[in-house]
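in:
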């Protein structure tokens, strides 16, 4: 399993964020620069001034979310414990218009912590039998975990 995609690596959210980020300054520039009729100038400038704080909020959310995701991934890399999770159920489900996935439920037992169950979607209709063991990286004290894609690492 690769590291989770950061906010800025997701095309839809990146485009939407850029539109919101650019809207306030562009509206303000249009109002101040004389690109709108004189009757509407005050309204356009006020709208631009209102949109600029929204721009700052969107940027902060994107940056804080990306930094948090990277920190969580680093925590698993440095303190993670590799354990075996046992598949308790597997079923084929739809995960798009024409795509099929396999939803697995697993029981994960971590030394010194109560066991927990988790559910994952795996792309494709893989045949995963109940009772199969899958490697999982688990943080020993926090509720962080991920499936291991490459067992050699």
């Amino acid at each position: 399993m690769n590291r989770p995609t950061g906010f800025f690596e997701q095309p839809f959210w990146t485009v939407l964020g850029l539109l919101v980020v650019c809207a306030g300054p562009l509206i303000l520039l249009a109002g101040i620069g004389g690109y709108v009729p004189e009757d509407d100038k005050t309204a356009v400038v006020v709208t631009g001034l209102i949109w600029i704080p929204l721009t700052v909020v969107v940027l902060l959310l994107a940056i804080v979310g990306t930094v948090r995701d990277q920190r969580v991934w680093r925590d698993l890399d440095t303190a993670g414990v590799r354990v075996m999770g046992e598949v308790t159920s597997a079923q084929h489900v739809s995960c798009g218009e024409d795509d099929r996935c396999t939803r697995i439920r697993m029981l994960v037992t971590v030394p010194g912590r109560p066991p927990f169950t988790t559910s994952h979607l795996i792309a494709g209709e893989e045949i995963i039998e109940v009772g199969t063991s899958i490697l999982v990286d688990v943080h020993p004290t926090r509720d962080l975990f991920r499936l291991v894609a490459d067992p050699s690492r």
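note: Residues 81-147 form a domain with the OB fold (Dihydrolipoamide Acetyltransferase, E2P) fold (CATH 2.40.50).
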